[in-house]
């Protein structure tokens, strides 16, 4: 493509990442009400990362170990409520992509406690019993149906590595400096994902956020340090036309690991680094443009191969590196070529 195209150049880059993740102590509480509904509290904040979705799934999974009639519909009976520093006194910060895992681990411990309290009732019933009837019996016999616990990793903090790789192909317009991401393919290790749909969205969203960091979000201040890019009119964030035209993401289903929560891994922050593949691919495209420019100017092609591509690689930056005089240089080269003929 680069040999046949004068005003557009393409670059491609494959980038692997290894991202260390740490887990910390996380609290949780599960309470079963008299009508069989379940209220769950965790120390984390739901901010779009799917925390509550995963917590509800873990609650349904862990209480489903009772295997009584109706546990297959427990998910519809679960409600997660936002806690505060009084109800969850040891709540940690929400960050590092491990809040969902830690909260699910804490909820699992709470549910295991409730299962231990409810199992004797099931055994005394002598036959199949429904979930609602079991809870009614527990209330009648004053069985405590609220359990709280603190998940504490065996090695504080527990650390593990996330792996991923991305291949990105970009096209640069040499006249304007515009960079278009043609295609990105990502392979990411989530361990055994707690929720593949949520994790897929996290990987895609994190990559696009990284795309903004590496390519768009120029942070400008004046001489006194006042931020000038203080709104979306002046601060460019990723939009619908920024994401790759073809975007393929595959979650690598890793093996079992006893120290991780159901063998899962984090999915929020690590994929952001994969967006560096777009930056590297852009550098390759700019390198091709500079090689062509050197040829037009009659210079050694290697003289344009060494340059620094800043972060973010905005349109003006790319345009300048491709050559502000690129059209004039082309016309002069074309005239010299025709005159030689």
Automatic annotation (TrEMBL):
Transmembrane spans: none
Keywords: Molybdenum
InterPro entries, per database record: Ald_Oxase/xanthine_DH-like, AldOxase/xan_DH_MoCoBD2, AldOxase/xan_DH_Mopterin-bd_sf
MF terms in GO: aldehyde oxidase activity; iron ion binding
Gene3D superfamilies: Aldehyde oxidase/xanthine dehydrogenase, molybdopterin binding domain
Domain Aldehyde oxidase/xanthine dehydrogenase second molybdopterin binding: 2-244
Pfam short name (any one): MoCoBD_2
Stretches assigned to coiled coil: none
Protein name: Aldehyde oxidase/xanthine dehydrogenase second molybdopterin binding domain-containing protein
Species: Capsella rubella
């Amino acid at each position: 493509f680069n040999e046949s195209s004068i005003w557009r150049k393409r670059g491609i880059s494959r980038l692997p990442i290894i991202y260390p993740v740490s887990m910390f102590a996380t609290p949780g509480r599960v309470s079963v009400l008299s009508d069989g509904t379940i209220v769950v509290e965790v120390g984390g904040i739901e901010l779009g990362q799917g925390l509550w979705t995963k917590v509800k799934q873990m609650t349904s999974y862990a209480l489903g170990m009772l295997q009584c009639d109706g546990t297959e519909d427990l998910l519809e009976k679960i409600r997660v409520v936002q806690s505060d520093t009084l109800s969850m006194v040891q709540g940690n910060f929400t960050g590092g992509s491990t809040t969902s895992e830690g909260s699910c681990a804490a909820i699992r411990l709470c549910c295991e406690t409730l299962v231990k309290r409810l199992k004797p009732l099931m055994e005394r019933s002598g036959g199949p019993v429904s979930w609602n009837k079991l809870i009614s019996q527990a209330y009648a016999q004053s069985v405590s149906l609220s359990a709280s616990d603190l998940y504490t990793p065996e090695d504080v903090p527990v650390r593990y590595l996330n792996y991923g790789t991305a291949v990105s192909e970009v096209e640069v317009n040499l006249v304007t400096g515009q960079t278009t991401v043609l295609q990105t393919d990502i392979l990411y290790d989530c361990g055994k994902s707690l929720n593949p749909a949520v994790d897929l969205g996290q990987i895609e969203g994190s990559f696009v956020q990284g795309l903004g960091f590496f390519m768009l979000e120029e942070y400008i201040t004046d001489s006194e340090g006042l931020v000038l890019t203080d709104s979306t009119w002046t601060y460019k964030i990723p939009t619908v036309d920024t994401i790759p035209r073809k975007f393929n993401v595959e979650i690598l289903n890793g093996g079992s690991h006893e120290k991780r929560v159901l063998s899962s891994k984090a999915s929020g922050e690590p994929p952001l680094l994969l967006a560096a593949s777009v930056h590297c691919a852009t550098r390759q495209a700019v390198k091709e443009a500079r090689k062509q420019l050197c040829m037009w100017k009659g210079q050694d092609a290697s003289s344009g191969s060494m340059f620094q591509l800043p972060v973010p690689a905005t349109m003006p930056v790319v345009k300048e590196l491709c050559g502000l005089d690129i059209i004039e240089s082309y016309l002069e080269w074309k005239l010299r070529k025709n005159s030689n003929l």
